Amino acid sequence: MKKMIIGFLFVYGITFGQEPLELKLSDAVSYALEHKADAAKARLDITNADAQISEVRAKALPNLSANAGTTYNALLQENILPGEIFGAPGESIAVAFGRKWNSTANAQLSQTIFNQAVFVGLKAAKSTKEFYKLNAQLTNEEIIEKVAVAYYQVFQSKQILENLQNNLELTERTVGIVKGLYENGLAKKIDYDRSMVALNNLKSNKQQAINAVELSENALKFMIGMSISQEIRLPQQNFQPEFLPGIELEFSSRTELELLNKQIELLNFQKKSTLAEYYPSVSLVANYGWLGQGDVVPLWNGKNEGAFWSDFSAIGLNISIPIFNGGATRAKVKQNQVEIEKAEEDLQETELALQLAYENAISQLENSFISIQTQELNVELAQKVLEDTQNNYELGLATLNEMLDVERELADAKNSLTNARLDYKLAEVELLKSQGKLDTLNENNL
After folding, report:
1. 162-169: long-range contacts (C-beta < 8 A, 24 or more apart)?
2. Burial class for 74, CB neighbours closer than 10 Å (0-12, 13-18, 19+)
3. Are 2 and 26 spatial neighbours (Cβ–Cβ below 8 Å)?
4. Are 31 and 230 in contact (CB under 8 A)?
5. Which pTM does this prediction carry?
6. Among 70, 81, 49, 78, which residue's Cα sits nearest to residue 291?
7. Helix-helix angle 189-224:116-183, to 10 degrees
8. Hey, which residues does 68 pair with through a beta bridge?
9. Is 115 helix (H, G, I), strand (E, B) or coil?
10. What are the pLDDT digits (tens) for 263-309?
11. What gap in Å lies between CA 382 and CA 408, rounded to an integer?
């Protein structure tokens, strides 16, 4: 129901050009999982796995077929028989068997009684579906990670734009102060010109920041599969840390490991399927049909017209026993075993890499937390220094260079704080990913 409502709102906004659509992180993730091509293809793989299971199962079920045909024998084959049969001792007589027209109708039933490869294939097909389910889950996790990163980058670009706007307002006030002092003969023309240069540079930087916001929003819309023309608005957030250093965090099993384990299981099934070539196979075959012969087409003629029909039936048991194929099966088994061992090496390497990513995520989280605290203090100090410098400049105790430098330092401190908060949110995403809990972002109300 929630997805239907979200989808309706998206379509409504696109169609009627209403107010920009407010997009929470959970909404963005839900929309991406519903509309992104990678997620759709992963779901189609699961559907395709059901078809594969049905295909393998069909090999173990009865197989019924029917066929019919009519043949015109332009020249009947002659067989040489001894003349004694016809009362002509010592002679050989050529006799043509059959009739000019033959018609057949036949139905055949076959049933596999024992085929090790079929039985192994059924188990492998079911395991293949589980593999595709895990692959779909991993695909969703990758989509969630990309959406979260793109979502937070929009916040970063908007915060940088806000910082520039604040700095622009400060510089505009500075220009006003310098202009007043210049007009009253208390400042030089060069000071006024330099302040205007600083103001114009900030205006240019603001336009670049506006473009950066638009680009980041378009990247987010592409990432979730939304129309680029749809306007969006992200809700206000303070980006306060949610995970504090010192809290015990657990490393749980990851989808990547489950996927590799399932791959190893499939490779073992492949090996068993190859070994099945050593086993005999048994099948039952039964057929029943009608044969019509005559000098006229039997299909629509009967005995009165010279066409004769008779039925026939046969039941057989086929047993195939492999004896020697030049060692081909043995060679294939060795190849299967090599693939299994390679997959096991990949599993060990992946386990090590995931543990490393988990430890690095915790370290990055702690470092970003410390950086946020430091940059918040720097912003407070820079703000205080700016206020003192402005007062001193008006009293003639500070130069214009000092005031412009302080304004830049405040802007740099704010941007550093913005970057530190973004780094922290990205570290949160990495930590949730390393814990296999990225799906909680979809459940979050952000």
Report:
1. 163/411, 163/414, 163/415, 163/418, 164/202, 164/205, 164/206, 164/209, 164/411, 165/206, 166/414, 167/202, 167/407, 167/410, 167/411, 167/414, 168/199, 168/202, 168/203, 168/206
2. exposed
3. no
4. no
5. 0.75
6. 70
7. 160
8. 105
9. coil
10. 999 999 999 999 998 999 999 999 999 988 888 888 788 788 878 88
11. 9
Per the structure block, which two tokens stand in for 237?
A: 């957030």
Take residue 393 and report the two structure tokens written for it. 């400049």
């929309």: which residue's tokens? 31
Identify whether the C-beta of residue 168 lies closer than 8 Å to the C-beta of residue 199: yes
* Angstrom distances, CA of residue 54 to CA of 49, 61, 124, 284: 9, 10, 12, 21
Distance spanning both ends of the chain, measured CA to CA: 19
Do 411 and 165 contact (CB within 8 A), yes or no? no
Residues 414 and 380: beta-carbon distance below 8 Å = no
For 336, residues 6+ apart whose C-beta sits below 8 A from its C-beta are: 267, 270, 271, 274
CA dist 6 and 190 (Å) reads 57
CA 158, 164, 165, 167 torsion-angle sign: positive
Cβ contact 263:340 at 8 Å: no
d(Cα 261, Cα 192) in Å, to the nearest integer? 70
171 with 130: CB under 8 angstroms?
A: no
**Residues 270 and 336 sit within 8 Å (Cβ to Cβ):** yes
Please, what is the angle between helix 328-394 and helix 116-183, to 10°? 10
E-state strands within 250-349: 281-294, 307-320
Token pair 């990851």 is found at 254
Residue 107 corresponds to which tokens in the numbers above? 């139905």
Closest by CA to 347, choosing from 269, 427, 267, is: 267
Separation of alpha carbons 441 and 425, rounded Å? 12
CA distance 385 to 412: 14
Closest CA to 205 of 236, 163, 170, 245: 163
State pLDDT tens for residues 70-110. Answer: 988 887 777 788 877 777 777 787 777 778 888 999 999 99
